[in-house]
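Below sits our specimen:

——
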Amino acid sequence: MKRILSLCLVLALLFTSILVSCKETEIPKINPPDIQDPGNNTENPNDKVEPEDKVVPISLKNQLDPAPVTTRCYYPVYTDFLQSLETLKNGIGTAVNTPAAIRSELRSLLRSAEDLGLYYDYHDQTYYTNGSEQYGAVPDADSFGGGEGYSQGVKKYVFVVTNDDQLHDVLKYAKSGEVIFIKGDIVIDLADYMMAGDIDGFQDKKIPYEFVIPAGVTLAGERGVDGKRGAILKSSSYVDIMLTLEKGARLTGLVLQGPDTKNNLGNITANQSSGILVQGDDAVIDNCEISGFYKNAIEVTNAKNVSIHHNYIHHISGKDSGLGLYLNNASVTVSNNLFSACTTLIFALGSDTNITFQNNVEAGSHLGENFFILNPLRENDSVYTKARAGIASLVCENNTFLSVATLASVKGIPTVLLAVRNNVFAYDEVYYDFDLASQKNFDASVYKERVQVEKNVWNILSPVILSKSSDGPQTAAKETMLPYSIQNEGTITPFTVVEKQAVAVTYAQNAKLTVLSASYYLDEDDLAYFYLDTLFQLEDQKISSHAVKMIQSAIDSIGGYTNYTTYLYKNMISLTSGGKTYGATGNEAGNLGGGEGYHQIFTTGDYVVKDKSELLLALSKAKSGEVIFIREGTIIDLGNAKEEKINTITLPAGVTLASNRGFVHEDGSVSTGAVIKTSYNTNKELITIGGNNVRVTGIVVQGGDPGRHLAHWDRCHAGTGPKLGTNYFYKLPVTEGIHCLYNNLEVDNCELSGFSYATIYLSGQDESASTGHKIHHNYIHHNQIKALGYGIVHTYAYTTIAYNLFNYNRHSIAGSGVPNSGYVAHNNVEFGESLSTYFDMHGGYDRNKNYDEEIAGEYVEIYNNTFLGTNHPYNLRGFPTSHRTFEYNICYLSFEDYGNVFPEHSRLEYYWYRDVFVTNNFIGMNIWNLSTEPEWMDHGYGDNFGAIIPEWYQLLGL
């Protein structure tokens, strides 16, 4: 009776949820008495009451011209950026009807991706001259941040490398004075070595590896030479240190790109990546672009006479870290750099740390509360005995700061000098005051003996030269007295900024996103922005005619849409002929891939959580039939690089884990749902299904390894030299999203990506198959390591897979081929990008190396899918014990073309496996050759297949 009542209650709640979802109103929360109510579900926990004296930002006057920055790394809010591109594209010729309007909109979008603040107005006016005095950052022969026309580039070199193998080998043998050169604008992903370990001396145990530039060696690129933007050294996954510089090493002319984007802003600090470690005296880092490392860009530890100059250091944006430079017992000169979107410019500690910070520009997009943080020593200062001692010195002179932040959080008083002089600050002096930790621990003499704040220009709109002194009257401040007085040393005529207004454009409405996504992986790096910048520079007569095509190319590149948009806009994802529908269509539950318009979007639950601790508490209490709802915007990172583990969560039997992916707010914005993720990779799943009848809906499940790792595969299996084999291959962590050994798992309206093994793994227990799985209305992408890389993988399991969007998976659907397994796949779309066959069922030799069992599962039914790429729709890799069918699908190439893609592999033929004609493999009516001229064609073979259409041939649906 209890079970019947529980079922009735669940059905009643489900029916109510569907009705309310249709009305776009919110279901009242049900909060059990033993769970603390986290607050009203509509409340934004980040809302703050702004202080009355909050600074008013200086408005940009020049809204059209670009800033002179050589960059390959962009960090927009992707959903907003793509929606704006879609809106612009749709408005070409109507709302946006002139070349000037197109350029204006493009420049606005590119600026949002660059995030350079006031630098657009003041890039050529960074300093004032008043008599013999200069205030602010004074450029030398090269631009701030290096790049275009850099004059100190390397002219001669000894080694040229083009991939990570070559770089690994050359770094072993290079000697002091030699130059390793990376030509052009190539991209090298270093993640393989850093994740799997070194190959030298490898047997069974993993050997940690870092790319180290040996003492006296230069690693150089061509950034800024003849229009080149520089080769990218990147990591597609979490990295502790990407490059290490030894004594006298130099890094120049390259782009170092970490894995952290705005998707990672919610990561715990342990999972934020680090870029460069300098651990030798006299090292040099110059003319580099360094970005996407949310812990810190450059660390200098126990090294003297280090020079860091003419670099563009940006989007070092960790919430609790985000350090442009981390300096520990280091002597460093930092000059002519451009900083943008850093949380802190410099974090310094250690009694031997001496910093010269001069002629740098902070662009006006600073993210944190402080420009500098000066950490204390353990002992107190010898003179100011109540205060902690700190670093030796910081001399900050002739810099331009275009943001507002506390100039320095002085947690330990420098033992020699803290000098701030001849700088330009964009806002009034009051906004840049020192945070001297505990002002009562200092007397006025500190501003004579240790701290010099002299001849700085404040407020670029009405500039005044001010100094601070221990002389003169004291100024009252709350309960204490400030230990200085302010001296006005004159005014300066302000910079003149030419006002250039953007062209006013009014759109009828914002366009919808092609695919609702919260997870973006730029496999082509900066290609999209190259399209947009090229379009911006076209002549008037060309820009209008090329705009739609080039903007669409940018959209496709960022979104990773491959061929999807081409055929979506041609209305060829699905076609009808003779009363039959071919290809994929949505259903009454929602659009392909879920998202906006999905029929059952949760907006609350029995437990409403907003962080990891609340989720774990809810999981410990939830009972079958209950819903745990994760609030929109929540990011829960279950990985921990410091502890080298993933804190896997287990979903109890009968529980629904939900968020509101696809929910449309009153202002028209669409939620992408809460994110459960890992940024650290290890051999453990993110989510374990703990019993039957679990549902995961409206959630973003995000792994930390979206790469293909082709070089890693070659080193293990296909290289020309010694092959390291399977043992080394699996030293690179094999990551997994959802792991289920029970029945009736439902995953719907989710986005799942970034796992090297599989996003969803389905099996049974003790070779007994699990059944009843439904995987539908999801967007599943970027699960693609060579040899693995599955969207959905089965061993002992039976599944229905429908209404999903797939791309960048090695196999979107795969099976191990065990006898008691099978799946039905219908109404799915493959965008076209993959390393192998889209749908798959292993068998024969793949499953049993002795050929004594050629079985490839029980059945596979593939119908009404759209395959938009050149890879095979499916493999025939053995003999199904019951049947395999393929009909009413749309295929990109002709039937004959697929047969000849890999002619040396007979297993890819449609009817033959190892020279045996497979009689229970039925290929019915499909559309072939979509890319050229669609052909409605039946590739069945008459009576050979008459025996395989008995009662089982009933197309299964959701």
Q: What stands out?
A: Confidence is low (pLDDT under 50) at residues 1-52, 472-481, 900-909, 941-958. The longest strand covers residues 296-309. Residues 78-119+501-560 form one domain. Residues 116 and 363 are 5 Å apart (CA to CA).
